[in-house]
Design brief:
Layout: H1 2-19, E1 20-23, H2 27-30, E2 31-35, E3 41-43, E4 48-53, E5 59-77, E6 86-93, E7 101-107, E8 116-122, E9 131-134, E10 144-150, E11 154-159, E12 162-168, E13 183-191, E14 211-224, H3 229-233, H4 239-244, H5 251-257, H6 271-356, E15 361-362, E16 365-366, H7 374-383
Helix pairs in contact: 1-6, 6-7
Bound molecules: 2-acetamido-2-deoxy-beta-D-glucopyranose (2 copies).
One 2-acetamido-2-deoxy-beta-D-glucopyranose binds near residues 113, 114, 196, 197 and 198.
Length: about 375
């Protein structure tokens, strides 16, 4: 099961990788104040933030973008001292009557008493799924990592990388699951002394105000919500998405090193789901392999063509050389053949001279034809 779970996680990581981008922007880039901006502030280079609650109001921020699936990570240092009656919330939420919501709420307490971590999840407007936890450290002494990990199969609440709660997708059993609506990321600090501490018994001590919570290093490794089209885009890798996969996800060996481990109690609910995800993985790997081999064979073909072109050029040069040689041969041949016919004519002429025995005199002497010399023969040939 461990191997197949790893396989499935690879697929999920691939899935999210296609569309997600790490929003590691600073607070001003990725978020804005939706409440109490007058007394809250962004600090330093924009990676730090302070929310304030006093008698005038609480305060809050929200992300500019909505997401569907991903890892939403925030470092928080909670209100110290007497924080009874205050609530610091870090949550995802969509809007509308049938909204989805995934919550971390930190319920303050009197000095020295432990904070309570209150978690909840709403699907299509339905909540009532609270679970509470006590932390194993003082959350006011330093920043701690609160991460909501949300994929098509499960929602996991992490505190310092320790999963404290898992909400699995049991849609097949008729239980709602947040997978149809993009959610924005919110955080707020507010007065909840009608219920937060000991069920509302302990009220806010305003003499301890202003109450301040500190935030740092918001990260959203998440699939951006662009409307309903994102429902399939953020879930299933299509052919195009496979092709867009960055090189680091190429091939088996690299993919295996991208395996992310989830806590042991996350399992996939049905063999069907597992098979589906495995098939998608194989599908993607095949497309990638095909693309690679196409690229490879293209390169081979190009190299072959270049080779052929070079050969053709060599042959052309050779052909030019040969045809020049041929022309030369032809010229030589015609020269030779005219020389031969010339010689034949001379032989004829000599034979004719012999036959006529009419030896001409040359410079007053009777001579043999061999001694006639050029001029006489030429004269004779032309007069035949
Ligand atoms: C916060 O926790 C998440 C979930 O375990 C982890 O992926 C992330 O790397 C952590 N971030 C920091 C800064 O430790
Ligand atoms: C506050 O401290 C009391 C006493 O330890 C504890 O019972 C309670 O759960 C704590 N948290 C809240 C939110 O009341």
């Amino acid at each position: 099961m461990a191997t197949s779970r790893a396989l499935v996680m690879v697929v999920f990581m691939l899935t999210v990788a296609f569309h997600s981008s790490v929003v590691n922007a600073t607070f001003p880039k990725s978020m804005y104040f939706n409440w109490g901006a007058h007394h809250s502030s962004i600090l330093g280079k924009g990676d730090d933030l302070r929310l304030v609650l006093d008698q005038t109001s609480g305060s809050g921020i929200q992300s500019k973008r909505a997401f569907l699936f991903g890892s939403l990570e925030m470092l928080i240092k909670l209100v110290p001292g007497n924080s009874a009656g205050t609530v610091t919330a870090y949550y995802l939420s969509s809007t509308g009557a049938k909204h989805d919501e995934i919550d971390f709420e930190f319920l303050g307490n009197s000095t020295g008493e432990p904070y309570t971590v209150h978690t909840n999840i709403f699907t299509q407007g339905q909540g009532n799924r609270e679970q509470q936890f006590q932390l194993w450290f003082d959350p006011t002494a330093d920043y701690h990592n609160y991460t909501i990990h949300w994929n098509p199969n499960a929602v996991v609440w992490y505190v310092d990388s320790i999963p404290i709660r898992v909400f699995r997708n049991y849609q097949s059993e008729g239980i709602g699951y947040p997978n149809q609506q993009g959610m924005r990321v919110y955080s707020s600090l507010w007065n909840a002394d009608n219920w937060a501490t000991r069920g509302g018994l302990v009220k806010i001590d305003w003499t301890a105000a202003p109450f301040e919570a500190y935030y740092r290093r918001f990260r959203a490794r998440a699939c951006k919500w662009n409307g309903p089209v994102s429902i399939s885009q953020c879930t299933i890798p299509t052919r195009a998405q496979c092709l867009e996969t960055p090189p680091k996800y190429m091939g088996h060996r690299r993919a295996r090193s991208e395996v992310v481990t989830l806590p042991d109690d996350i399992s996939f609910d049905s063999d069907h789901e597992l098979v589906l995800f495995t098939i998608m993985k194989i599908f993607c790997i095949r497309i990638r392999a095909n693309r690679q081999s196409t690229a490879l064979s293209m390169e081979r073909k190009m190299r072959y063509i270049t080779e052929l072109e070079r050969k053709v050029q060599t042959l052309q040069t050779e052909a030019t050389y040969l045809s020049a040689k041929l022309t030369l041969y032809r010229k030589t041949k015609s020269l030779l053949s005219s020389t031969i016919s010339d010689s034949e004519r001379r032989a004829h002429a000599i034979t004719a001279l012999y036959k006529s025995r009419n030896y001409p005199t040359y410079r007053g002497t009777t001579t043999t034809p061999i001694e006639f010399g050029e001029a006489t023969i030429e004269h004779y040939v032309h007069n035949q």
